[in-house]
Amino acid sequence: MLFVWIALWAVALILIVADYRSPVNRWLSAVALFGGAGALAATLADVFIPYLHSNHPQQKLENILYNVQAGASLSSYYGLPYSYVLFAMAYKAVNLSRSNQRKVALILLAPIVLCIIFTPPYNEYHPISHSIVVWWAVPYFLIGTCLVLTKKSQNYSISHTHWITCLAVLPPILFSMIMSYVLPSFGILRMWKYNVWFVSIGVLVFLIGLFTYGFLGIRVLIDRRRLASTLRAVTSGTAILHHAIKNDVGKMRLFTEKMRNYAETTNQPELVEDIHVIQTASHHIQDMISRVHHRTEDLVIQPREVDLEALVRGTIKPFEPLLQQIKLEVTFPQGWLCTVDPAQVGEALNNIISNAIDAMKGSGNLSITLHEAKRELSLEVRDTGSGMDKAQTAKALEPFYTTKSSKETNFGLGLPYAYYVMRKHGGSLHIRSKLGVGTRIYLIFPKRNVNAVRKLPETVVMEGRTAHG
């Protein structure tokens, strides 16, 4: 139980440090904290207190540890089902106002208060009145599990994290329900000692999820901070480089212009031609560094209310002559008005569509779909191009990383720029790709952040076409 105690409290700390503002993280952290409290009580009862009693008998210290054991045990038995059902409500995103959420939390707390007041006090053999507690604790566990399992995510890119969350949370919770609540209510005591196996599996799944697809957005948060710091470094670096090169290129232009005038005056056509080559190269250098600097400088968004469908269709329009044998399909619920910077969002989408068309090399399927969820709008751009393997997908948002080595004008800044635009709007960008199958990119707009409102009845418009170049 020592391992369970340390592991669960470590998980609680990771969850709360990752995003303490998230109610999902806070309540799941409480679940791990209360679960760890039960392991602490067992560790005190079976290890520390017996050791102290046998080797260094101190009645006062033993009494203190016994009181800690009692408090940890009671908080575990009462706190685990309570925090779990509230975690499930937050995770499912049950549509309640803040005042109603507080009322529900107080109502769910009532059985615990009544049990503390009216049932016998704690003792080591019967820490709680299991035959009474089971009647409200088990429904809490079952309701919470149903809420977690019925959570639906229309965003394919984060569906993996949902099932990782289910695998990490549900088996330990349901096994603990049986071993710590159901069986003791039939007089079968101390079965909680078998919880260690399922808790260990849950912690293992949590750690695996943390470093693969992510767990409740924690990996996304780590990646977000890493990418943000990288973009800041690139921004400052290119700004310095842009300034230095601009000054030196200015000098080159000044002196080459003098040289060209002299060559023309003295009738030296070969020298004029050589100087023209130098001037063209200087213009090219400045143009290249200016474009890099433009893409990496800090974005200042100018949001205004726009029709999201009109913005997307306006961005698609210039690409139609380039589609060749590419079939374009647009699925869009009409009437969504969002407060965004149309220039920046349009340019981000432009980069993504351009990458998709390049990846398909003239033939395939390109689909652009808007998915609506309770709290967010998800714009999916899906292509059937060459796709990327896991290593390439992991690097796709890194500045200057590109798989288009044949194009000297491609700087590998399109996706980092799109990512940065979404971050500026309080949203996110997710990539899912499979080599030889294609790529899906999701632009996630939280409704609250972009003031999304629906002005028309829901009408799904589907457009399919094949363009021949």
Automatic annotation (TrEMBL):
GO terms for biological process: phosphorelay signal transduction system. Keywords: ATP-binding, Kinase, Membrane, Nucleotide-binding, Phosphoprotein, Transferase, Transmembrane, Transmembrane helix, Two-component regulatory system. InterPro entries: HATPase_C_sf (IPR036890), HATPase_dom (IPR003594), His_kinase_dom (IPR005467), Sig_transdc_His_kin-like_C (IPR004358). This is histidine kinase. The keyword Phosphoprotein applies. It comes from Cohnella abietis. Residues 240-449 form the Histidine kinase domain. SMART domains: HATPase_c (SM00387). It is an enzyme of class 2 (transferase). The chain crosses the membrane at residues 28-52, 104-122, 128-150, 162-184, 196-222. Its EC number is 2.7.13.3. It comes from the Bacteria. SUPFAM superfamilies: ATPase domain of HSP90 chaperone/DNA topoisomerase II/histidine kinase. It catalyses: ATP + protein L-histidine = ADP + protein N-phospho-L-histidine. GO terms for molecular function: ATP binding; protein histidine kinase activity.
